[in-house]
Amino acid sequence: MERKTAAGGRTSNKAVVYDGIRNVIQEEFEWRGGPSLLPGIVPRGLLSRRRQMVLAVFDEYLPDDVVVRIRITASMAATLANLQPDLYGREGPGYTTTRGANIAQAKTVLASDGTWDVVIDWERFLNESPESQAEVDDQTQILEHLAAHEPQHILMHLTSTDSSDYVDSLTGSPTVRAWRHYVGEAIDEFRCELAANRRVTMTPTHESTASDDIEHFRRALNESAAHIDDNPRRAAMQALGAAKEMVKALGYLAAEYAAGGREPLPPSPLPTGWDEYIGQFWPDIFELFASVPAANESASVEFLTTVLQATCKRVITWLTEIGIRYEKDENLNDYCWWDRREF
């Protein structure tokens, strides 16, 4: 791969690769009236400036000897399927960008040779003229935030503090352990977001989109409850999936609050459904998230495991508080009791 020179004359192993994008777009986006995929005029040199910005951010966070390919792609699902067919290809569960009420915009994966691929949606690199300078600046801010977030996943792997390094050591009841991967992922995302938010906040903020997250959660619970009688396992698994995405969304919100030194007060304006679904849960889940350091700060696996266990327990009681009691028995059978059928 192409080797770049980082700040201070250091040699960097970070480079940009284009996946699924026509060659005419691969230059500097310095053309007028582009192909049908990109109507309009892309500001001259915009891709080059943003590409160099992303490389500089990765170089700032990662050691020089870490090899990273930053893949700008027209299809995250297709690129990930090519990179890891067993997991994301036809033989695996595949990859979708839907994350509750949100859309994934980047994904970091470890290659078999120990190098890394960071897949980023190409739309994050683009603005069409004649968009305003404010719109261009907002898009650049989003991209810089993503560029600060993704290397944090690599740092956690390098320091063996990614949740995959400790979730299976979690003790406790089968019900608590059933949440370990879901909650571990949320803790990882909080740690990455905390580091990224200390550099530049996401736009729009997670506080401003909390109503969307809660509304999606409520709709998902109603969809799952519709199958309580005809397919109770499906109902339970759908409800747990909805709860997983809500907990992750709260992790993003907590990182925003923690980076700004804010107390765990409700968002303003108060999101619809906050008091009913999140109000009692928020101070506790915030305190748990905020107790862990950012991904680029030192952390012990023992401490992270303790937080993971406490968070799993609190998630279980939260679901009970809003009317869903889930248990897994010693034989790993799943059970779910519903106190309500409408949310």
Can you put this structure into words, describing what you see?
The strands form four sheets. This protein has a four-stranded mixed β-sheet with strand order 3-4-8-7, with helices on both faces. Helix content is 47%, strand content 12%. The termini are far apart. The longest helix is centred in the C-terminal third of the chain and has 28 residues, at 232-259. The protein is α/β, with parallel strands linked by helices and 343 residues long. β5 and β6 form a beta hairpin.
Sketch the topology as an H/E string, one letter per element.
EEEHHEHHEEEEHHHHHHHHEE
Helix content: 40-55%
Q: What percent of residues are in strands?
A: 5-15%
The end-to-end span amounts to: 52 Å
Please give the structural blueprint.
Elements: E1 4-5, E2 11-12, E3 14-19, H1 23-26, H2 46-61, E4 68-73, H3 76-83, H4 85-88, E5 98-99, E6 102-103, E7 106-110, E8 116-121, H5 133-158, H6 174-178, H7 180-199, H8 210-225, H9 232-259, H10 274-277, H11 282-290, H12 301-321, E9 324-328, E10 334-338
Parallel strand pairs: 3-4, 4-8
Antiparallel strand pairs: 1-2, 5-6, 7-8, 9-10
Helix pairs in contact: 2-5, 5-7, 7-9, 7-12, 8-9, 9-11, 11-12
Looking at this protein, list some descriptive labels:
4-stranded mixed beta sheet, 343 residues, single chain, disordered N terminus, alpha/beta
